[in-house]
Amino acid sequence: MGQSLSTLRWRRSARSLQELAARPAAIRDLSPNLSCEILISALENVAKYTSAKNQDITLVVVGGIINTIFLRSRPETHDVDFFNDNLPPATLRCLSKAAKSAFKRNRILGRGWLNNHVVLFVPSHIRRILLDEALEQHEVVFQAPGLTLLAAPWEFLFCTKLHRLSGRGVSTATSYDQEDAVHYLEKYISLQSTAAVAQGTVRFWFGQYLLDWTTETEELLPGKRSNHSDVPSFNCASSFTVLVEMNLYVMGINRRLITLQSTATGSVRPTQVYGGSQSFNAINPLRILGR
Prior knowledge:
The protein is α+β, with helices and mostly antiparallel strands. It has helices at residues 5-20, 24-30, 36-52, 64-71, 89-105, 124-137, 154-168, 177-192, 199-208, 215-220; strands at 34-35, 57-62, 76-77, 80-83, 114-115, 140-144, 147-151, 197-198, 240-243, 250-251, 259-262. Mean pLDDT is 74; it is low at 1-10, 24-29 and 223-291.
């Protein structure tokens, strides 16, 4: 019996998604360290390819790509993790070919350098919320004719870090998680032109994104009181102690008063995390595989 055109189209779309999905074992073995320069060059190659095919693709990104080429808070990352469920099959196929083309130009990237692994862990209705919020936020991580990368909502990124720091992640918290949380909350506060974020608001975000709110999570917000009653700190075993200006009832950041005190000897480098996506492993413990 012949197969319907719709079935064939669905299978082609599925293959395109599979090609763009991260391959955890391969990424673990290769563990490429991709600098800002390498990433920008690769993304420019993707943009040239998609533009030549008359495609103008917008992706929402999470993880180390934001820290490496937008915030410049890390020297390198391992991949580019994205999602956008509105992309039609033809666009996904074009993007997959563009990623392969960029890899052929620079093998350092690794085969899974551009992937949508995040779709395995965040349900489709949450991704739709995140897509709408990212489009409204419009924080451009990278842009060239044919390709635009937008940062996922800062409040979402902040919550995933807190979730991981609370011990809910499948992997332990890393040396840069606290610093990332501070950067993400700082960006949110700056964008909203507000002085603080109520703890109740953070808890609402957790519920919206289906992240578990626990006693450990709550303890991360006020932290243990320091010698200065108005400056508590995040309380987590980490290479950094992140001191943030707060008061008794609200959590906020004064950008001029952020202090990062390194308690580790030597430099702190990002480390590879199972699954290839650094920030997004914060929500892996949800194990939400529903689409």
